[in-house]
């Protein structure tokens, strides 16, 4: 009888431990999602208020920004140089997140996000990767894309064809 009681207690303890562990993981993920959302919201705020230093402090030293134009693939220093004139004018850009999704790597050190943004270009999509570096989430890659409604894609393709055909030709040479 004592063995049966001992086994019952062990099973209850194990079940309680597993349940608590799952709850802690969910709590941890929710906290980390809030932390990442704050980074992304701050990114938008710092651009809107032209806070150059704080904006770029959110990026990892070895990071990449990929813009809406096919030629816009910059490391952090290149992106900083490109963006500086906009920030110097007192307002860089003003994006507001409308919908955001965040997922994590199994070890919890990386997070992927995608979001729908309200911008001066109308709806855009921001997506990217953050890494936990020194206890802080830093942007490793940010991709900004414009969206094109399916109803007007043919018109957009006609407009961009002469520009992008030349770029396609150049890229094929390399």
From TrEMBL:
Keyword Transmembrane applies: no
Keywords: Signal
Entry keyword annotation includes Signal: yes
Pfam family for this entry, one: SnoaL_3
Domain SnoaL-like: 36-148
Signal sequence region: 1-22
Matching InterPro entries: NTF2-like_dom_sf, SnoaL-like
Full protein name: Nuclear transport factor 2 family protein
Annotated organism of origin: Kaistella yananensis
């Amino acid at each position: 009888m004592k063995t049966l009681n001992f086994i019952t207690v062990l099973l209850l303890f194990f079940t309680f431990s597993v349940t608590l562990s799952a709850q802690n993981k969910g709590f941890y993920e929710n906290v980390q999602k809030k932390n990442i959302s704050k980074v992304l919201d701050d990114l938008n705020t710092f651009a809107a208020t032209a806070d150059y230093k704080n904006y770029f402090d959110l990026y990892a030293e070895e990071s990449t920004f990929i813009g809406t134009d096919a030629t816009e693939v910059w490391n952090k220093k290149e992106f900083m140089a490109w963006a500086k004139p906009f920030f110097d004018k007192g307002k860089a850009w003003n994006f507001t997140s409308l919908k955001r999704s965040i997922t994590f790597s199994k070890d919890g050190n990386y997070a992927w996000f995608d979001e729908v943004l309200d911008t001066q270009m109308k709806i855009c999509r921001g997506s990217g990767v953050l890494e936990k570096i020194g206890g802080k989430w830093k942007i490793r890659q940010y991709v900004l894309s414009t969206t094109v409604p399916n109803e007007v894609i043919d018109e957009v393709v006609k407009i961009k064809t002469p520009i992008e055909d030349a770029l396609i030709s150049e890229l094929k040479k390399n």
